[in-house]
Amino acid sequence: MKSIALANQKGGVGKTTAAINLASLWAGRSKVLLIDMDPQGNSTSGVGFFNKDVEWTTADVLEGNCSVEQAVQKAGFGKLSLLPAHVGLAGLEADSLPIDTLKDRLQQVGKDFDFVVIDCPPSLGRLTLNVFAAVERVLVPVKAGHFSITGLEQLFLTIVRLRLRNINPELKVLGLFYNEAQPNTRLHQMVDRVLREAYAPLILESFIPRNVHLGEAQVVGEPINFFDPRARGYKAYLELAEEVLKKW
Ligand SMILES: Nc1ncnc2c1ncn2[C@@H]1O[C@H](COP(=O)(O)OP(=O)(O)O)[C@@H](O)[C@H]1O
Ligand SMILES: [Mg+2]
What we know:
The protein is α/β, with parallel strands linked by helices and 248 residues long. The chain has twelve helices and eight strands. The chain has one domain (2-247): P-loop containing nucleotide triphosphate hydrolases (Rossmann fold, 3-Layer(aba) Sandwich). Strands 3-4-2-5-1-6-7-8 form an eight-stranded mixed β-sheet, sandwiched between helices. It binds adenosine-5'-diphosphate and magnesium ion. Magnesium ion binds at residues 15-16, 38, 42, 119.
C-alpha cells in the first residue's frame, strides 16, 4: 500500500483540492482511500459527503470508537473510498494524540487499498505529526506569494526530526508543486528563483494553474475528472498524478 500526504501548514494553498483530485484520478485504476485529517472536513464535502451522511469519522477511528473499515465510505467515484472528518477532530489536536495512532489504525486496512491519500490540516500539530508518522511520502502544494517560502523550512525541519527520532525513518518529501500558478508573472518567477536555491530537486515540473472549475467542482462535491474533464485543471492534475507516480 502506497501512502502520501498533502501537507503545508499554510491554509488555502491547495492541499484539499490536490488530495481530492489526485485520489480520484488514481482511483480510476487503483483502490484508493482518501483520509480527511482536517477538522474542517473540506475533502469530505469535496467528494459529496456531509455530516448527516456519516456515522463514524476519522476522530472515532483515532479514538478507537470504531474500526477503519466501519468508518470508511464508498465515495462513488471509481474505486475511491473516504474516511470522513468532522469538526470534533479538532479536539484530538489539543489532546496530544500519541504520534503512532494513525499509523497503528492503518494497519487494519493495509491489504484493502493500493493507495492512501491523506489531506492534512493547516498546522504542524498532533494531527499532522500523526500523518507524517504514518505515510511514505509528503507532497507539498505551494502558492507563490511572500509567505510561501518562510513556512517550508519549518515543514522540512519537522520531517527531518521525525526521521532522526526514528518515528518514520523512511519518510520522504516527494516534491513541491505550484498551485494557482501564474508562471508568466514576476511574482512567480521571483518565488521560483528563491525556492530553487534551496529545493531545486524537489520542485515538480507539473503545476496547477488557477482554474475556477476546480473550485466549482469542490462546491458541488465532485472531483474534477467527474465534474468537467475538459477543464484545464483536469489536464494539469492528470500530469501531476503521473509525475508523482513516476517520481515515487
Ligand atoms: N488551482 C486552483 N484554481 C482555482 N481555485 C483553486 C485552485 N486550487 C484551490 N483552489 C481553491 O482555493 C481554495 C483553497 O484551496 P484548498 O485546496 O482548500 O486549500 P487548503 O486545503 O490548502 O486550505 C478553495 O476554495 C479551492 O477551491
Ligand atoms: Mg484543506
